[in-house]
Prior knowledge:
Blueprint: H1 2-18, H2 20-50, H3 56-105, H4 115-126, H5 128-158, H6 160-163, H7 170-203, H8 207-215, H9 219-271, H10 277-327, E1 339-347, E2 357-365, E3 369-373, H11 380-387, E4 395-400, E5 403-404, H12 410-414, E6 417-421, H13 431-436, H14 446-455, H15 459-462, H16 484-496, E7 503-507, H17 515-531, E8 536-540, H18 544-547, E9 552-557, E10 560-565, H19 567-573, H20 576-588
Parallel strand pairs: 3-8, 3-9, 6-7, 7-8
Antiparallel strand pairs: 1-2, 1-4, 4-5, 9-10
Helix pairs in contact: 1-2, 1-3, 1-5, 1-10, 2-3, 2-5, 2-10, 3-5, 3-10, 4-7, 4-10, 5-10, 7-9, 7-10, 9-10, 14-16, 19-20
The protein binds adenosine-5'-triphosphate.
Adenosine-5'-triphosphate (ATP) binds at residues 113, 349, 352, 356, 374, 376-382.
Organism: Promicromonospora soli
Main location: membrane
Subcellular location: Cell membrane
Amino acid sequence: MNALLQLARHTLALAWRSDRRATIALGALVVLEAFAAVGFALSQRWIVDNAGTGAVVALVLAAALGGLAAAVNAAGNRIVNLLQENLAERVDLTLNEEVIGISTGLPTLEHLERPEFHDRVSLLGKSTYELALSGIGLARAGSAAVSVVLSVILLSGIHIALGLLVLLAFPPIWLSMIAQRHREAARRRAAADERRDERLHRLAVEPESAQQIRVMAAAGAIDAWADESRARHLRVRDRGLLAATGWELIGWAIYTLGFAATIALAISMVGTGAATLGSFVLAVTLATRLRGEVRRTVESIKQVARAATAAEHYVWLKDYARRERAVAGSDPVTGPVRRIELRGAGFTYPGGAEPVLRGIDLTLESGQTVALVGLNGAGKTTLVKLLTGMYAPTEGEVLLDGRPLADFDAASWRRRTTGAFQDSFRLKTTVSEAVGVGDLDKAGDAERIRLAIEATGVHAFVDRLPEGTETLLDRSMGGHELSGGQWQRLALARAHMRTDSNLQVLDEPTAALDPQAEHEVHELYAERTADAAGQITLLVSHRFSTVRMADLIVVLDNGAIVERGTHRDLMESGGAYAALYESQASQYR
Ligand SMILES: Nc1ncnc2c1ncn2[C@@H]1O[C@H](COP(=O)(O)OP(=O)(O)OP(=O)(O)O)[C@@H](O)[C@H]1O
């Protein structure tokens, strides 16, 4: 009962937030429907019993009542369906916004590593229709119940056995609830395969992946993997559906037998004179309608049960966000941070068996450029994620001027960080929007955007675009497409927007640039580090010509720091760094 009330509260609030007028209109129509059903049956009895008695007024009133009830029923149904569609679309939008808000409002990105989070978001996304209609489903179940009670009172007046017909409603209702549980459990089991299927199939139509898939002639294989996942999730869902249908059929078989017995009883009562013909018509009309009411109740219950599962995902997501926010720090990062430290820091990804970072002790001082080097998979990007507060270390801590990063409000630390990354995302907006978003406070400042564009060399190709910085970067919308290197430069300009950052991270953002361009970019950031008070630059690169300029070079191997020092120190010590540097330099020679 408590869960039902919670569901009603959540879904009504959602519907209310999405479209007030539609919610009120639907509520009013559902109440009218409850009385229309009984009104129609009563009018039938009065018409039959008064036919041929000369009671014209009674006949006219009975006919008017019948007509009105039938009209409310027919028109009501149609309007309810229309309003429901409309409301469902709006609730869908509201829910999407809320889920995005929950995801982006979380202090770290840890939730994105959790399959359960993705499963619940995707199941919720597929159930917004049910969730939108569940408030109305509950109201309809209530209205059907009122209608059933009124029918039972009238039927019992004819014969108590007819009144008991209502008991027959319980097997289909109860068994349909069991059926629904089977369906939901199957959907839950199928969710991961369903996501994989969708994701793989999407690869074929997204421009970034479609080309590479064709070059490798891998479309068939990827399609086959997607099909395997589809076959698996459909098999699981079909099995659930089969079990559910079986339970529902048993319920309706019991009901149909009872219904046939009732009609037989009503016929025999008219035969023995125990009931008038009008009462017989009333009994048949009510019994028939009762079947409709039971069916309506069963449908509403199904809808509500589906919505209850969706609401459970919704409540889970909200609770998850609340729990995460409750343990997150709230102190704002104010003045420039002079020292960022990692102390005994280790990290294991959620669900991961092995730590990918262990025992990291490292201090970054303001004014320093620190380079991280190491083989693929050594843990460089993960270290960056800890420093930018995307993940909290699972061991040890990150300190800002001696205080744990966990004490600070994550958003305020992010406002003090900036960066460009190896897999920078392609923001397909206008050039100025794609750059301006690097510092939202200055996103409308054309002068600031221009400076960022010029400093990073983006103007060299943007000025040749048909509408300059107002050019739309989206081919699918008739806009312009950039090359891989141009997209990377745009990401660098975005990172350049923020002038009051404390930590700037360059995590291989120049892989697609030519060596000369890369060199210029790193010089630019080194200048920024020297100029701005409190600026710390963290550089991840595989190009040693760039790395050698750093004040401190840190070599990571298999999640641990194995060497640190300046280029000269490390070359003199002749360790891992010197070997890596030599092997790259000899290739150039
Ligand atoms: N989101 C993730 N979930 C689980 N494991 C991950 C995740 N991201 C990275 N890893 C694992 O963590 C280890 C370190 O990865 P990381 O990206 O930090 O390495 P890297 O040194 O930056 O490598 P590269 O030079 O290839 O960019 C790898 O073994 C990788 O498989």
